[in-house]
What does this fold into?
Amino acid sequence: MKTKMWKIHNQALQEAAQCLQQGEVVAFPTETVYGLGADATNEEAVKKIFQAKGRPADNPLIVHVHHPIQIRQYVEEIPPLAQKLIDHFMPGPFTIILKSNGKAAHTVTAGLDTVAIRIPDHPVSQALLETAQLPLAAPSANLSGKPSPTNADHVYQDLNGRIAGIIDGGATGVGLESTVVDGTQDTPVILRPGGVTKEEIEQVTGQLEQNKSFTQVEKQPKSPGMKYNHYEPDAPLQLIDGSSTFFQQQINQYHKEGKKVGVIASSPLSEELQADDLYVCGSSDHLQEVAAKLYYALRYFNDKPVDIILCETFPTEGVGEAIMNRLTKAASSQLAE
Ligand code: AMP
Ligand code: MG
It folds into this structure.
């Protein structure tokens, strides 16, 4: 299959929408990461997403709609607190899980009796949803297990030849996926940290129980995607939790073993480290910036001659929680001082 690359203009949206209506899959930008969309009511179309990504069939997809009013078309009920969350955070980097009424394709929900719904807050995703007049099932547009794509080139690298087309809408803003919240219970539970922080959600709901599983890989998690490896760069990634002296000692040790070392660090730490190659992912005072650059960083070393990538750790406050959740999953080991 030849993968089309559309630059943004009206004709492109029409063509992409037509592909979607014909049951093809199309990648498009959202404010979090690029999504790989297909008609969420068409089983065959949704299967193509799983095939293109190599995604395990038991990992359900998020259904994207363009207005809160459409949520009711796919769910049995919206409990009051879930409605409050919808009012506050949608559109935005926020996904709500509700009891499914069975209208979304069986493959979308992986057979669960719940469905995940999001309203992307990005002009291109909004325009595409409106033009196609379809709910779009859309996971991140990367090969399963790889870092999520934050620009159209990343999508191309992973999925060229496997999908009908890519809408190039430039770099995404948030850079990390949505926060997934189970809204079926009286008290909402955060299943995956993301673009909306726990602190922001608690301003609406009051204090939430800490979900201890964020940084663990569980066998039977409530959100099936949590049990798989994710976001892995080509070279092994090791997280380094300690001072700049400790960090440099680890680099030197790998050098003694004849290994080439790539480093991902934010400033000011990055200024104190000497490695074979260094990716500066913003400043540690601005974790939003680190979030926006994280997946670039994880892909940056893929065509570089490094044997190992070392990355600093971040405080798990605000968006730092989502950053550390992704880094812990991407890493094959962690060293603390
Ligand atoms: P992504 O692969 O980035 O699109 O992430 C979607 C996340 O939402 C994965 O972790 C899924 O397992 C999770 N998810 C989607 N639908 C449901 C659902 N009905 N119940 C629980 N988790 C879900
Ligand atoms: Mg993903």
Summary: The first strand starts at residue 4 and ends at 7.
